Amino acid sequence: MGTESNTTTLASSNAFWLSRSTLEKRLSFLLPAYRADSFSITTADLASNASFVNYVRHHRLTDLSTGTTLDVIEKSIRKTIFITSLESRFYRERNVLGASVHFKHPPFLGVIETPWESLIFTGYVQGRPPRMSAIAKTVAPGIAEIETVTNHHLGLAAWWQAPKFWTMDFFRPWYLLRSRFNYERYLHSLEELARDDDRFADLPRRLRALRPMLRHEANGAKKSPRCFCHMDYLRKNFFLSPQGLQMIDWSEFKVGRIGFDGGSYLSAVFRRSDMERFMITRDEFLVTYLEKLDPRFDRQQVLRNLNYFFLQNSLWHFLRPKTIADHQRRGNLDLLHEKYEYLLAQPLISGC
């Protein structure tokens, strides 16, 4: 990705427009110094596979008088029955992370809402994607910092903001009904594998039996302290830059619970690592995270929340037909079996 050059004043603006309008008009609203006759613009589409995203575009603005440039990301998220996207609602609260130390965040320029889409504008960052298992000691304090400041932010919110945060809460049916949080929908894939491989024969039954435990853990998590959660700790959303570890893409954002993002990070490492590497990374992360965890939070409950979210994400991923097929193609069924057994053992150590 590219760096941003401060050739013009960066503003943080929000508005509702009845029409989509032109890119030049949108830039004039967001960037006070922008004038169409003073800048040239080149645009490139960037890849995105997130639900409801129309496009992600990189605009490079070049000042015709000085040659200096400014790089802007424009993200368009379509609406269903005029409902504003979670990501755009997050960006309206984005300033709470403005003083972040451990994660760096691209400059936020503004949000424009139309009846059909949310348009989010941010700066453009430069860096290289990290190996997620190698940044555990950086991610851990970053997560603890987000949890602390956003929990405080939610606690100070005015009474009239309560309905907004309620609709953004993880424990709403419109989020929990997603297949990502209903792993049993994919057990048929494991049952098909079990017909050809006896090692997996009893696993569908044992994995199905986790459901009551997960419901119990969800009920406990629901009553624990809230915070903003990124929930998408994949390599594509992080960049190592001279300024520090950059975090992007809040498309999976929810008002979650303390510990959820730790579970999301560890599940991402679990996907890509062998068991030895995962266990080393898990230990490094937990030691650092617990050192940085705000003492206001109940450590045991936080670890239960972390384990709950880790299980939800990992069960969904490792039961997907694509994941099973990939392990079959690569001859990694021994590792797949080992990971199922690890997930089944988690309820026994959830209070660790």
Radius of gyration: 22 Å
How many domains comprise the coordinates? 2
- Principal-axis shape equals globular
The neighbouring-strand order within the major sheet is 1-5-6-4-3-2
The CATH topology assignment of the largest domain is Aminoglycoside 3'-phosphotransferase, Chain: A, domain 2
Q: What's the total number of strands?
A: 10
Structural class: alpha+beta
- Rounded mean pLDDT score: 92
CATH top level label of the largest domain: Alpha Beta
Number of helices: 13
* Poorly predicted segments: 1-10
Q: Which percent range describes the beta-strand content?
A: 15-25%
CATH homolog superfamily of the largest domain: Aminoglycoside phosphotransferase (APH), C-terminal lobe
Helix content range? 40-55%
CATH architecture of the largest domain: Alpha-Beta Complex
Terminal-residue CA separation: 39 Å
Helix and strand succession? Answer: EHEEEHEEHHHHHHEEEEHHHHH
Q: Please describe the biggest sheet, giving its number of strands, its sense, and whether it closes into a barrel.
A: 6 strands, mixed
Relevant terms:
single chain, 352 residues, alpha+beta, Aminoglycoside 3'-phosphotransferase, Chain: A, domain 2, 6-stranded mixed sheet, two-stranded antiparallel sheet, 13 helices
